Amino acid sequence: MQQDFLNSSNREKALTFFNNLLRYYNLNHLYDGESIYHEVFLKYRKFCDSGGEIENIEGWMMAAGKYQVLSYVKQDIKKRKLLNDIITTSGSVDKSIKNFSLLHQVLMKLKQEKPDYYRLIFLYYFREYSWSKIAASELKKPIYQVSKKELCKYRKRGSRAIKRLRKNYLKLLEK
Q: Positive or negative CA dihedral for 65, 41, 47, 62?
């Protein structure tokens, strides 16, 4: 079964497919087909080690690779959304900035200053939690037991976290 996965014709088809997907989603500067193929192979090994059987390896490989690329797309969109939220609401003139290393620096500074703010931003933007899910996880309650008052408290804290992030971002831009 593993030989079918490692077959050179399957591998070449998969690499071409993954590279085309990355190019389509404009992520070919961040990832390459080889890294996607490696991730898919690790998923394949894990699936087979757990006793799973795959009838159509080529189809499975393409689907798993597509889902891997889409997860990278979602991560990229979240980073761009966070950066866009910081830039557009701060009144900054330079709205075309795509400097994710600066965003990373600002996030790490926030993590040192206010780890609870960092956690809120991380959960909301990168883990895609809703505010009710964040409140429930912080309060260690089921979502349906979170009151509106508690939910508003976490939304407000999230708003303060974005303001703090924006403030740190503008400080770094001034340097």
A: positive
